[in-house]
Amino acid sequence: MKIQTVGVVGAGVMGIGLAQNLAQSGHHVILVDISEEILESANKQIRNNIRFQSFFNKNEKVDNPDYILHQIKFSTNYKFLEDTEFVIENVTEKWDIKKGVYAQLDAICPETTIFAANTSAIPITRIASLTKRADKVIGMHFMNPVPMKPMVEMIRGYHTSDETISTAKELLAQMGKESILVNDSPGFVSNRVLMLTINEAIFLLQDQVASVEEVDRIFKTCFGHKMGPLETADLIGLDTILFSIEVLYESFNDSKYRPCQLLKKMVDAGLFGRKSGQGFYTYNGAI
């Protein structure tokens, strides 16, 4: 049975990609964020993304932006999530913010609604403890850009039921995606490895071992990676990188996860990467 209505909380880069992907796969989407300005920006970005897809897929049928946007309701009011069957949360990787979000979701959504945390590092079991439906909380770690990435890292929390996992897999299949199921641990598999790699690459830059371009070129030419670690950091967002590495440092109490001072400095300066227009590289306009 197809899931009809999906809530997406957080209209940042990941939330925008998710809302677009869901609408393009025939779902009704409720996209919620804290301000009308953020939602207006999300609306424009989704329209631009669809046009961008049409530019690169001239020989394929491309969705009409107006039709896709008609599938998405943009709102600052959580009340519109009361009829959703599935909610995917993508808010900032800060525990105090997530606590407030899940308190609202748990109070508004039906008991049958599944909550999926699209988090980079925070344990799913800890997130589930904020709700009265721990068996219906799962991790779904999407990759950026969401519409173009076919694989999702799915995380089973301590209480996550087999039924919840099955429903989550069904939704992903409807979105044209596959999943790899892993057990709950801070950072899971992908970010427990990736955040260390990016953080260490920033240390190499700080220690003047190599330039930005040289670090990335080594990974692309020697290992066949499509992007180097510093390019990847800009794509993810340096603020998100810092939040994630801080969660790992706090969770494991291991000095190998200590955030690089250069990373902290760049985040303090507002150099977040692609979304701000400046990170390790310079971009033509913020995303």
UniProtKB/TrEMBL annotation:
It holds the Pfam family 3HCDH_N. The record marks 141 as: Important for catalytic activity. Pathway: Lipid metabolism; butanoate metabolism. Residues 5-184 form the 3-hydroxyacyl-CoA dehydrogenase NAD binding domain. It comes from the Bacteria. Keywords: NAD, Oxidoreductase. The keyword Oxidoreductase applies. Belongs to the 3-hydroxyacyl-CoA dehydrogenase family. This is NAD-binding protein.
